Every structure is written in structure tokens, then in C-alpha cells.
Amino acid sequence: AQKITQTQPGMFVQEKEAVTLDCTYDTSDPSYGLFWYKQPSSGEMIFLIYQGSYDQQNATEGRYSLNFQKARKSANLVISASQLGDSAMYFCAMESFNKFYFGSGTKLNVKP
Amino acid sequence: NAGVTQTPKFRVLKTGQSMTLLCAQDMNHEYMYWYRQDPGMGLRLIHYSVGEGTTAKGEVPDGYNVSRLKKQNFLLGLESAAPSQTSVYFCASSPHAANEQYFGPGTRLTVT
Fold first, then answer.
1. Which residues numbered 38-57 in A keep a CB inside 8 Å of some CB on B?
2. Strand, helix or coil for residue A68
3. What is chain B's pLDDT, residue by residue, as a tens digit (112 residues)?
4. Of B42, B97, B99, the CB nearest to A91
5. How far is A99 from chain B (nearest CA, A)?
6. Angle CA(B8)–CA(B13)–CA(B17) in degrees, nearest 5?
7. Which residue of B has its CA nearest to A34?
8. What is the CA radius of gyration of chain B?
């Protein structure tokens, strides 16, 4: 069965420091995609970054990078130089067999 | 270019009533999705569509029906609302499966 797991319900990080949000997944699909979304308190879903299962290099988008370890089935999000505006819920998601599966999320609080 | 819109934004139903949620996208995307998000949880896929005239079940389809008669619209129906269907409903679209999803702003539904 396809599954996404986020084991950190909440995290704190000091402004300007880096933070890693954990995500592990499970699927029997040889071709899948991994995504991270941000959900601020206002409720909208904001796409951050995507990693394909066959991509050799880790994805990066500005301050966001995805640490993809295929053998470990992990797809951790790294946010560098945290900003106050990064405080939000972060969801890891997987596309597998045309369906999407979301983790339960990590609430990130950035402290000034 | 409105992206993905959802109608209505808020709704209160009584148990047993029916309603339809409308999702519209103007990006000519093939794939469309309906999710529900319960408090403190990630998104769960209800139904999805890979093209006009097609629909398929997601993770939690019971109690819901969908239709995709036009490429730009994806309707979610509740035939007989139950309090367990109180949730925030998100619609999303994407050009194909392994691609960023574009989300609507959500519909907050309360069933009393």
C-alpha cells in the first residue's frame, strides 16, 4: 500500500538557521513523484518543490532543497536561512499510480 | 487568469441534505482532484479525473460522487450529508500526474 509518513508534528527553528523536515514514503510503483507543499495559516496550498523517482540529482528551488534518498525511501525538505514567513504547516506528498497521498504535516515555527 | 476557483467558499448543511461543490480551472489541465482536509491532518484524496468524461476513486470516496462533463469543471456531490463530512474541501488541477498541482482556495463545509 502507498503511504507517506511525517513523524515531526511540530518544529521550532531560529530565524536565519537551516531546518530539515522529515518525510518517508512507501510505494510499489517504480515511477513516482515526491512533492512538498506549504500551508500558511490563511489555508492555501503552496507548491514548493518536486522530485521524480528517476531524477539523479536532488531538487532545489531557491532556499528549498529536497534531500532524496531512494534506498531509504526518504524525501526530506531542507529550508536554508529560515525566515519568519516560513512559519506554516508543511506537507509531504507522493504521486503514485495517478493518485496523490499526503502526510499528516509538520508545523514549523520560526523564532525571531 | 483565475487559476483554480471553488464555489461556494462556505456552506452549512443539515444532515441528509445534498449539495454540489464546483471546481473550475482555466489552465486547460487534464487532471483534476478533490481532497478533504480534516483538522490537524493532511489532505486525503476523494476522487480524481484524468481527463474530460473520466473519474476514478481516491482514498476516501464513500458518500461522494463526481462528474467531469467539461474539461474545465469538476463537480463534487454529496447526496446525503453526514456530520462526518464536515471538513475543508480542496480542488486541484495539474497538466499530468507527475506534476505540480494547482490548488483552489478551499470550501469550508459544516454538516450539523
1. 43-45, 47, 50, 52
2. strand
3. 679 999 999 999 999 999 999 999 999 999 999 999 998 889 999 999 999 999 999 999 999 999 999 999 999 999 999 999 999 999 999 998 778 899 999 999 999 9
4. B42
5. 7
6. 110
7. B98
8. 13
